[in-house]
Each structure stands twice: as C-alpha cells, then as structure tokens.
Amino acid sequence: MIDIATYLGSAKVVGLEPVQVEFPTGERARARLAMAVPYVPAVGDEVLIVAQEEAFVVGVLRASGPTTIRFDDVRLAART
User: Fold this and answer.
1) Contact 57, 34 (CB under 8 A)
2) How far is CA 65 from CA 40, 50, 53, 60, 68, in A?
3) What is the value of pTM for the model shown?
4) Can you tell me the mean pLDDT for 48-64?
C-alpha cells in the first residue's frame, strides 16, 4: 500500500477538472498542477507526483494527448 500522504513517484491521470490521478496501487486522489511550463493534462498521461498531505503534479513522464502551448503575453528576442 502506498502512503499517498508522503509519496514521490508516478501516477496515471484518470480524470480532469479537477485532475484525478491513480497510483500504482489503484488508490486515487486529486492533484494540483505545479509545473513551471504550461501543461494541459489528458486522461492516460503518466505524471510525476509529489505528495505530502496534498498531491502535486510536478512533471510529465508520458503524455497521451496533443501538445498544447498557450501564452497570454509572449515576447521573443534573438541575440545579435
């Protein structure tokens, strides 16, 4: 049995809005996105979870949905 109160490892996305993940033991929990880059989860993705009382998605190990990049305000610059 996994103690999801103190967990670091993979999980599968099984639901959206809010994000629901399933641990290797079959236990499920809500998880908050804590990514430095934009990520839109899809059911079937394998994600890296860090949990201590609350679960956070901190990485994507295998994505099953399309790659979507969204920006509100973007500025690109090139070095000369």
Assistant:
1) yes
2) 8, 22, 28, 12, 9
3) 0.79
4) 94
